[in-house]
Amino acid sequence: MNYLSENPCPHPGQKVVVGQNIVSAAGLMYRLRWNLTDIDTLAVLAERIPASIWSMGFTGTIFAHPLSDLGGVNGPWEKFLEKIWQEVVDGKRIFAFCEGGHGRTGTFLASLIAMIEKPDDPIAVMRERYCQRAVETIYQAERIFALVGKEVPEYYQKTLLDQTKIAAILEYWKNQALTKK
Ligand SMILES: [Zn+2]
Model pTM? Predict the structure, then answer.
């Protein structure tokens, strides 16, 4: 995948199987196409929540665990996952989102799958069900594989973004933003 390209694939909210249940996953940049009318709980991975959720008819609960774009996972992540999973078990319909729907949302889905299903490779399982481009950095993968008590496999060490690649992307985005002004 070319991380420098924009809008690689749209994620306006698709249903993803986790265990015996379903969780919806999306990107904020596709929010004009969101449908929150049957959603009970928002799981916010982004650093902002759009006020337009109210005009979309959302009347549910909001749980947030903001993560940095192209970063890792900090804070009490397992606690957040358990809280969300309790909602799922209680029959609530969950809608998770970050900006693009790949890195942080992919990390969330793979983490839930890791916690609930304990597969050998939670990222592979998540990608099969959601998107091949989801989970972006080695640091996200580390937290996911920690949930199944494993090291990040070599394949991901080679293909996911490390600090050097992330720095190059951030620099590219900065220059793009400057030339747009
Ligand atoms: Zn995608």
Answer: 0.94
